[in-house]
Amino acid sequence: MKTTLAVACLGDSLTAGSPGFSGFSGWSGNPESQYEYWLDKIVQEKYPNAEVDFVNFGVGGNVIWQMQYRFKRDVLRLMPSPDYVILFGGINDLLGHGALPADIVADYAELGDLIHASGAKLIAMEIAPCTVTKLYVDRIKEANRGIHGIAMKAKAPIVPLYASLQDTSSMGLNAAYDIGDGVHFNVPGYKKIGETIFTSVMQGILSGGTRT
User: Fold this and answer.
1) What is the distance between the alpha carbons of residues 14 and 78, in angstroms, rounded to a whole number?
2) Around 129, how many Cα atoms within 13 Å sit in the side-chain half-sphere?
3) Does position 57 have pLDDT exceeding 80, yes or no?
4) In a domain, 33, yes or no
5) d(C-alpha 124, C-alpha 210), whole Å
6) Residue 212 in domain
7) Is it the case that residue 106 has pLDDT exceeding 50?
8) Measuring CA to CA, which residue among 137, 211, 147 is closest to residue 171?
9) Looking at the 3D structure of the chain, how many domains does it have?
């Protein structure tokens, strides 16, 4: 049986593929420096009869309220009827704009409602670990608890990204996945994200077990 799905990857530079790939700002650079590349590759290998169209809508510097606007302006313009939206955001809100976890969760919930209203299904991504002070580690964890609550209420799958990428000794980003700034990923990091999305969510969707 052939499976045809349209999946929008919406987020900031961590979706775009920074610093190696430009994402929605030009789709240029090393394609392996984006989780969408690895997720697509795994799906093609594991489900050769599936037709899944993944599109990278990542733009560097975006906070979640900007993604709300871009979901309507960019995603629904280029992909009018997405089946799923992988939502990965919040780190710029926290580190760049000083937003508190409650603010991030409120904006995330609003964007989740927009996704639901469009007829698409949300795939929620946890905020990834960063090599930052304990204050921000704690805020990331608090925001992730809120994101889990949103996913539970929406009956949406969630990608357990934090545990997948963390350095268990420091709770920051594992050096094996770090480009060097404690926030952005190298190619192995983006590959790890693609693998984590596949094993935690996409495999179930494509096998017919997680179509929420």
Assistant:
1) 21
2) 22
3) yes
4) yes
5) 13
6) no
7) yes
8) 137
9) 1
Evaluate whether 165 touches 173 at the Cβ level (below 8 Å): yes
Over residues 5-51, the pLDDT tens digits come to: 999 999 999 999 999 999 998 889 999 999 999 999 999 999 999 99
Residue 204, SS3 per DSSP = helix
Per-residue burial over 134-162, b = 16 or more CB atoms within 10 Å of its CB, e = otherwise? eeebebbebbbebbeebbeebebbbbebb
Q: Residue 142 sits in which domain range?
A: 3-206
Residue 211 is assigned to a structural domain of this protein? no
**113: which 2 tokens?**
């409602």
* Tokens of residue 122, six digits: 């949300």
Residue 48 counted as domain residue: yes
User: Token pair for residue 35?
Assistant: 């989780």
Give buried/exposed letters for 87-115 (b at 16+ CB in 10 A, else e). bbbbbbbbbeeebebebbbbbbbebbebb
148: CATH: 3.40.50.1110
Can you give the pLDDT at residue 3? 63
> What's this model's pTM, rounded to 2 decimal places?
0.95
Q: d(Cα 93, Cα 21) in Å, to the nearest integer?
A: 21
Tokens of 39: 């997720």
Q: Which two tokens stand for residue 175?
A: 């050096």
